[in-house]
Sequence to fold (106 residues):
Amino acid sequence: MSIYDKVNPHYTLTNLTPALIESIKSLVKYNFENKLDTYLNKVFQKEDANVLVDISLEKNKKWEYNGAFKFFLDGKDFYYSRDSYKNPDDLVNHAFDHLKEHLSKK
Fold:
């Protein structure tokens, strides 16, 4: 079982094509397994570890992307949101980069 399977993120994806939805989900999985794997392996050593993730992405009327990411990692909360990104992949990657930076300071 991978780290991603233990997290089971919740998605709210609005005005995105089916191909983009699959791409976003794949990118989220990649980020969990490659950017957060070390931290999450430590979290999941506890039997009662609780990790929740809520991801919202939408294409706006300007054909840009707005996103919000809520991470709840066993008592540590982190929120990231940005509007008007031209590339949704960058939005996802930046959210995980900021989370990793935040966790490394704790």
Observations:
- DSSP finds four helices and four strands in the chain.
- Residues 77 and 96 are 13 Å apart (CA to CA).
